[in-house]
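Recall from the previous lesson that a structure prediction takes nothing but the amino acid sequence as input. Here we apply that procedure to DUF4252 domain-containing protein from Phocaeicola plebeius CAG:211. The sequence below is the only information supplied.
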Amino acid sequence: MKRWVILWIIILSVLSGYAQKGMHVDALFESRFKHDKRAVEVLIKGKELKKYHLTLFRSLTVTDAPAVSEEIEELVSRDALAAVDKEEGRVGKKLYYGFYCFPPRDDNYRYLFYRNTLVAPGSKKKAEVTVVYMEGEVTLEELKQMFK
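The prediction returns the following tokens.
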């Protein structure tokens, strides 16, 4: 019985990471920040997302980590090259926010959001970078309505 439980845990962890495979931001969701107190990682899948027409929601927020922020921006920028639709805001050469839509995989749309509060003009907020990866049957227009 113990072997089956261990096997299922391994299978589920592999499958949960499969979704954003092939994307550069995948490296951010491989438990790298599991014990980092500056980071909050969220993984939601299953019934909780059904009403939003999503199958996967992953997010990572890192606070007060300038070197990590630079790395995250670089990974997001690389993925942005493959986006079929995008909206970006920049302050100088720094990416402030990005909303990217990627070609569907397995009949699911794929989306990537990015925000860096450190870059915001005149911001007095704590330095914080957030990356969100979502996939599902939800369209870009439906997502925009949800986040209004």
